[in-house]
Design goal:
325 residues, mainly alpha, 2 strands, disordered C terminus
Length: 325
């Protein structure tokens, strides 16, 4: 049998040369949402650096996750969005693979750190006296480094395992499998399928930890003790649980419509891809909405009571938890 001479590796990742009205709408949606996520993310990092209430385990975890979200959305700003709007055919498919590799690396780290933040909140509520001894500065730095390294190995699996590469498709508006052989019956990345489903399971486990946190908060409420801590814990629970819900919605859609070619599937692909960006926006906005200290700073006022409150320190300490090494 003669080889398929019409087969072009990475053809799924190339533009259609003449952008359609849908291309422009979807492209501008990706570009505008990603740009908003980048701006809000940078502002989050700025707040964490400038405000002492975030100079702790929670702040470091949040900053690391936010950096992941910024990196992921910068790829959309400089590649995914423009490619979808312009639909060029001269851009090599390799660029789409690089865009996925870089963007997914940062997005996966953001997802992993999202679980760490939720676990941090659960331990803060359930074990308040042990919290500052568990999350010392050294432990936090090591944990963050491990998460970055872990994600690096996950991304390398796409490139090392034969015929599993994925890239951004400006015509399908999402990350898709780049078929490496015309005779290959499989039209999906095995590595991608495993990673997506594993991420879904991890995110679901995070929601379970949220339930544990909620149960503990209810117990504290019924006991009638620590009213001030209760109000603060409710804020933090809402902050993390709302994010987990939107993340679960995005991951569920990604798992369900992965590489779907139907017209309905196409709409779901667009929705799933943009919902993940919206999740990053939601995460950045949550820091502002659920923290009165941040809102006071934005409003240009600094209440003395707010300034003195160490909102994210669960147990009182004579010194900052960052010196508990």
């Amino acid at each position: 049998m003669l080889p398929n001479e019409s087969f072009v590796f990475g053809s799924e990742l190339m533009g259609r040369s003449s952008p359609t009205r849908v291309d422009r709408i979807v492209g501008f949606s990706i570009l505008s949402l990603a740009f908003s996520a980048v701006i809000l993310g940078v502002y989050n990092v700025y707040l964490i650096k400038k405000m002492k209430i975030f100079h702790n385990a929670f702040g470091w975890f949040w900053a690391s996750r936010t950096i992941g979200e910024i990196g992921s959305n910068l790829v959309h700003v400089f590649y995914s969005g423009p490619m979808t709007i312009l639909q060029p055919t001269f851009v090599s498919p390799t660029a789409g693979i690089v865009a996925f590799t870089v963007g997914y690396f940062f997005a996966c780290h953001a997802c992993v750190m999202h679980q760490v933040v939720s676990l941090n909140r659960m331990l803060a509520v359930c074990t308040p006296l042990k919290y500052r001894f568990i999350f010392t500065k050294r432990v936090c730095h090591v944990l963050i480094a491990i998460c970055w390294i872990e994600v690096l190995f996950v991304i390398l699996a796409y490139l090392v395992v034969p015929c599993n590469m994925v890239g951004y498709s400006p015509t399908l508006y999402e990350y898709v499998f780049a078929k490496c052989d015309p005779d290959l019956e499989r039209d999906y990345s095995i590595v991608g399928t495993v990673v997506n489903r594993f991420c879904w399971c991890v995110c679901f486990a995070t929601m379970v930890s949220d339930v544990v946190t909620l149960v503990k908060i209810i117990q504290i409420k019924k006991s009638g003790t620590n009213t001030k801590d209760f109000q603060r814990d409710v804020r933090f629970f809402c902050q993390t649980s709302v994010q987990n819900i939107t993340m679960m919605i995005a991951l569920t859609m990604i798992v369900l419509v992965n590489n779907s070619k139907s017209s309905d599937g196409m709409l779901m692909q667009i929705f799933a891809f943009n919902t993940l960006i919206l999740t990053h926006i939601n995460n950045a906005v949550a820091l502002i909405v659920f923290n009165p200290e941040v809102r006071a700073r934005i409003a240009g006022r600094q209440s003395s009571s707010i300034a003195r409150e160490s909102s994210h320190r669960i147990a009182p300490s004579k010194t900052s938890e960052w010196h508990q090494n």
